[in-house]
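Sorry to interrupt, but I need a hand with the structure work. Leave the record below and I will have a look:
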Amino acid sequence: MNLTEFLIMFILLISCQHLNASNLLNSSPIADTIPVKSLEEVTVTPHQQTDSLRRTSYIPDRNALKSSQNGIDLLNRMGVPQIEIDPVTKTIQAVGGGDVAIFIDYIPANKDDLSNMLTVDVRRVDYYDHPSDPRFLNNTRVLNFIMRRYNYGGYVKLNAGEDFLIGKGNIQGMARMRYKRMTYDVMGLSRYESNGHTGNERVELFKFPEQTFTRHTSFSKAKYRQQYHQANARALYNSDKITADNRIGFGLENIPHNDFNGTVTYDGIGIPTSVYHSLENEKNKFLNFLGEYYFNLSDRFSLSSDIDYTYSMTKDHSSYLEENFNKIINNASDRTQTFDATMLASYNAGSNTRLNMQGRLHHAHSHTSYSGSVSVLERSDITMGMVGVNGSTTLGNLYGYAAFGWRWIRSSLNSKRSLTSEPYMDLFLKYSINARNSISLTFHHAQWEPSQNLKSEIQMQVSPFMWHTGNPRLKAYKSYDLGVTYMLLPSNRLNVAVFSGLCAITDRYCYIYEPMQDNTGILRTIGQPMGLYAFENVGAVCTLRLIDNRLMLRGNITQIFYQNRKPYYHNISYTKLSLQAFYYLGDFNFSASYDAPKRYYDGSSTPAIIKSRDYYAISAGWAKGAWNLNLSLRNIFRWDWKTFESVSDYECYSDRTTYYGTDRHANIALTATYSIDFGRKTNRENELREQQLNSSGILR
């Protein structure tokens, strides 16, 4: 058979097969022995919140991503049950108390990084208790944002806000450029505050051996002005094996006026009513370098380190003039340098077990000069060295973490020197019943060195009958923390956290008020050791989502008990309550929040009880494209300037002070963000953050 005959036979065969197929299609169908049923549409919904042994993961929904202006706003809208956010300061804390470290793609961050974040790039938020990952640098609680990654390009983001009724405003801009593994950032920030309502009124009772009298101070006029400016730059190299993050920042804070005046009335002593004038101004400058480094040496070994250096300058001037008394002038100038370096070596032992060894060196030097009512020069140094080990492992549904270490602290103030050593310990257990239920137990013990400015020996006059001094013999005090938490994540619509905790402080230092030897005034000193200070809490947090995630409701209720023993012997308790609601409608979003009044001690070293007022707000927002606008009405029915009250009672002195300011006054706040991408791709993780002012050595 030649080629022509083969092609003819092939065409005929295909034609016959086509005819047979056509006849089959045109004939009656053959009955199927299996009955045919129509299937309903099946929608697969991913788990937006899951709990595992080492972390709890939350995936933000589309409404929250679109409506949020920054990372803190996003956390609020996500309803993460382990944390709470203060509505005024925007501080993030654990619901049972304690700090929460913020990371973005495993690189340390803070709330200012979150301000510059483009929330549409957030893929997931993970919460960790006592993580063993070396990149978290042994922080106890961690929130880590997982971002969408890009190869190159950049973006510019602008934030602006104005509080129209209380005289506050801010503007912040950031530009980012990424090329392959390198990222470059620059940021600028300015904010201001200007009002005539910042001051206080107080009633003081002075108890001398032979005389008791009352001093009532009221204020009638005030002037407060504050400006803050900052510029930062950053270079980041990030790969699977190496991360190197270098930042440098410069900041300037100027408070030219913190002034108020009024009248002083005395009862029980022959001093006539008089007028007083209180003036204060302050300037702060700082320069900061921060480096974060991570090296993945192999599948089992890695190194992490961070270096933080800050140089700051602070100048403070205050004067107080009251008729019938000499003018009181206090000037202080401080230069402080701090250096902090941490190194952490990690070994992955396999079988879900990891061992870490950490070393840390911290040094701070302050040079402080005083003039006015007292003239003295103080030099203080504090050096801290620390070594520690920690390990974690999983056994079935149980995750365990343990850490132990030792700190050595050498401090000096002028010619006085001291050397102390102190241990610390952490234990954490978590049992995961399943992906929706877990229970955890934590214990922490440490010792803490008091701040150097509390060790000053100078006696500084702050009012006609009051002097302050420190105590150079202060030593480390001890703390013990115990907590238990139950987590329930039954579905994407609901999450619940029930918790209880106890914190106890022993060998603490306390403020003590005693008559001066000549009975011309009261001297505030600092005594140690004193009795137990403790607080206990038990509470619950619940978040509920309804109407296809368009409505979110969140509530937090906690009962807190305080014990404040020697030398104050006083106990208090109160119920903490906060409520939130969010609703989404297309490009618009609406929210409402309420925080009940609070009642708590002003720290562990004082009997002062703080009584704050409640806080409420409603807001409406619009987000589309590059723009995001939000208008808030806060405390809109409250037109007085009272913020909180402080009440303290000592053996020979008592004080009731009412503070006035802008935090609880009616406020109309407008905030806006605008962002624009450039280049083919953009990368929006690890935003540049505002650096923090260094603490000074000035006695307050």
Observations:
- The CA atoms of residues 647 and 656 lie 5 Å apart.
- The radius of gyration is 31 Å.
- The chain has one domain: 49-149+160-310+321-357+382-389+398-678.
